[in-house]
Amino acid sequence: MTDLAGGDAELIAASLEEPERFAALFDRHAPAIHQYVTRRLGRDAADDVTAETFLTAFRIRARFDAARAGVRPWLYGIAAKEIGRHRRQEVKALKLLARTGHDPVADSWTDSADDRLAAEAAARSMAGALARLSAGDRHVLLLFAWADLSYQEIAEALGIPVGTVRSRLNRARRKLRTATGAADNPLVEARIHEGDPA
Questions:
Q1: Which pLDDT score is estimated for 6?
Q2: Element of type H or E holding 30
C-alpha cells in the first residue's frame, strides 16, 4: 500500500501550519499500526504503543523527508522503536502464544474445530521460534509478513540497508524453518514483493 493518492506527505506538511490536519493521517494509518502492534505485544499494550507512535510522529513531523521515505515506513519505523521499548512484553506475549496457541488478532483464522486446533499447534511452535529470534531479525520478519512492507520500506522504517533487510529476513526464515520443521508456514514462506528477490 502506498500513501493514499500521495496525500499523506502533503498532510504532514500542512499539519506544520494547521496541526489538526495530522488527525487525518491518524485516521488513515492507526488501524493498521494498531493491528501490527497487537500482534507483536498483545491488546493490552497496543493502545498505548499506537498512541505513542502517533504522538512521536506528530512531535517529529517537521523532520519527515518525503523524498526519502513514504509515510507508512516512517510510521512503522516509529512503531518498531516503541515496540523495542516494550521488548519484554513482546517476548512474554510470544511465549504465552507458544503455550496457549491463542493469537489475539487471528482469532478467526479457521472456522472448523479441527482446523483451529491445527492452527493453534502451529501458532504455538511459531511463537516460540519468534521469541528466540533476535530483536532485529524479528522486526524485519514481522514488518514483512504482518505489516506487508517491501524490503525497501523495511530498510527505511528501521534505518538499515536493504541488504541487511535481506540477510535478516533470510536468517529469520532459516531459523523458523529449523525450529518448526515447516516450510509452508506463512511467516517462513511469506509473500514475495515484486522486485524483492527471496
A1: 52
A2: helix 22-41
Please provide the DSSP assignment of 125-173 as one string. HHHHHHHHS-HHHHHHHHHHHTS---HHHHHHHHT--HHHHHHHHHHHH
H/E element holding 183? none
What does the mean pLDDT of the chain come to?
80
Q: Which residue has the higher pLDDT, 178 or 55?
A: 55
Q: Judge whether 124 and 99 are in contact, CB under 8 Å.
A: yes
Residue 186 DSSP code? T
The Cα 123–Cα 61 span in angstroms is 37
Q: What are phi and psi of 43, to 5 degrees?
A: -65, -35
What are 197's three cell numbers?
A: 528477490
The Cα–Cα gap between 171 and 75 comes to 25
Residue-wise pLDDT for 83-102, tens only, equals 988 877 667 777 777 777 66
Residue 90 near residue 37 (C-beta atoms within 8 A): no
Q: At CA 165, angle to CA 153 and CA 184, rounded to 5?
A: 100
On whether the CB atoms of residues 142 and 40 are closer than 8 A, the answer is yes
- Three-state DSSP at 11 gives helix
Cell of 50: 499506537
What's the chain's Rg over C-alpha atoms? Answer: 17
